[in-house]
Prior knowledge:
The chain is mostly helical.
Amino acid sequence: MSPTPASSGEPPLTARQAERRRRILRAATTLAARGGYEAVQMREVAESAQVALGTLYRYFPSKVHLLVAVMLEQLQGLQEHIRRHPPTDQEPALRVADALTRAFHALQREPLLAEAMVRSMCFADRSVGAEVDRISAATGQLILDAIGQSAPPSEGQRAAVRVIEHTWHAALVAWLSGRASIAEVRADLHTAARLLTLA
Length: 199
């Protein structure tokens, strides 16, 4: 197995370190799925992952760092699933709306986990900036994959992708807080995706 990067700008993890990190992320994901943000306590994560508390803090300095990493892992899983099962609509905007709707429904199946991840993003300060940037990049790449063109995106497309990305995150927050229905989220995603026709 090849070494795994801890995060951008850091040296790669050894196979043993990568496995320890995966156990930590699995433990945090399970706790969040059962009880949301408040259920993720660092001591419980360490016990469940069978690592020392000090070791856990070396990998993730805070609960926010940990749950932001969980969100990145979830997004990468969604990205891989959509790559294996790409949208089939003729129009790029419809493909993007389909991909984001499917990603939303995947998060909807675990609402407490989604709530924990989104709260961690809201609480993230500059110390988590690199990790948040990776989440933004993963979301943007999911949208670009759904567009499905071989040529690099134009500047107009990149601008549209950024707005669609912001809409997706805002729609997720609105749904989790009870301010938007699932139907409204779908409508907002389709509206934002139509920006691609103007790019």
